[in-house]
């Protein structure tokens, strides 16, 4: 059952997921990470994102593009976890079909990237509160010009077509599309997705604060091994953090 918040609206969340695999997951991080370490990091972020979503929205599932990944994702996130096979290709297909499927189960749905170090506490609640207060779209800005979250209470498929994905214009273009359609936009707090080694190193000073504990432990391991360079990494190089085992 979907959670019913004080507003009386049922809400759900879908994490856009890919089954982690060496050589296919977070390839921009390799090198300096090995392909195995990059896949392990992708797995940690996926599991942390699902878990931190569930903490606020029990009706949390995963959305995936390739049918052959269904069994592996079920093993990772739990066979009883809601799983949705997207229709359409790429991120546009994920967002369009994820919105439709989410709104079959609830009054509002949030769609999230899986390459974030967990979801900041209260971010999902804030997005749904914004929708309940009259916003048509809630977006979570990324530090790279994209967005890590979008929440809607009605399908607006045109918002996601012909957007320059994975660029510094992704968020701005989406907001422009909303304005052209007469849709009110609410922005949540910015958050970081992890695409580059610079993104990864930027997490080092924040390890104690990250909502994703698997991710924090793994980043600490990488920093202590001297693989990462950035503020705080030198101190971690002199420590021995607890080893993380996934999932």
Describe this structure in words.
With 247 residues, the protein is of the alpha/beta class. The chain has helices spanning 35-56, 70-77, 90-105, 123-132, 170-180, 197-202, 213-224, 233-237, and strands at 11-16, 60-64, 82-85, 108-113, 137-141, 147-152, 185-187. The longest helix has 22 residues, at 35-56. The chain starts with 10 loop residues before the first strand and ends in a 10-residue tail after the last helix. Mean pLDDT is 88; it is low at 1-6 and 231-247. The protein has a seven-stranded mixed sheet, sandwiched between helices. Helix 2 links the parallel strand 2 (60-64) and strand 3. It has two domains: 11-187, Spore Coat Polysaccharide Biosynthesis Protein SpsA, Chain A, CATH 3.90.550.10; 197-237, no CATH class. The chain is globular. The chain is built from eight helices and seven strands. Helix 1 (35-56) runs antiparallel to helix 7. Helix content is 36%, strand content 14%.
């Amino acid at each position: 059952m979907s959670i019913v918040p004080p507003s009386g609206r049922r809400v759900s969340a879908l994490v856009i997921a890919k089954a982690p695999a060496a050589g296919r997951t977070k390839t921009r991080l390799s090198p300096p990470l090995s392909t195995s370490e990059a896949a392990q990091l992708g797995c940690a972020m996926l599991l942390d994102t699902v878990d931190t979503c569930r903490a606020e929205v029990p009706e949390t599932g995963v959305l995936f593009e390739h049918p052959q990944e269904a069994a592996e994702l079920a093993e990772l996130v739990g066979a009883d976890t809601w799983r949705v096979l997207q229709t359409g290709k790429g991120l546009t297909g994920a967002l369009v079909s994820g919105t439709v499927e989410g709104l079959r189960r609830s009054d509002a749905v949030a769609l999230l990237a899986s390459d974030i170090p967990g979801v900041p506490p209260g971010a999902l609640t804030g997005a749904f509160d914004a929708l309940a207060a009259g916003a048509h779209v809630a977006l979570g800005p990324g530090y790279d010009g994209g967005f890590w979250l979008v929440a809607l209470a009605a399908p607006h498929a045109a918002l996601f077509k012909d957007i320059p994905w994975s660029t510094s214009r992704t968020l701005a273009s989406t907001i422009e599309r909303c304005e052209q359609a007469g849709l009110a936009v609410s922005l949540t707090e910015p958050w970081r997705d992890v695409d580059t080694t610079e993104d990864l190193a930027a997490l080092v000073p924040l390890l104690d604060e990250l909502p994703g504990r698997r991710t924090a432990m793994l980043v600490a391991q990488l920093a202590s091994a001297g693989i990462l360079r950035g503020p705080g990494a030198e101190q971690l190089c002199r420590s021995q953090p607890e080893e993380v085992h996934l999932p």
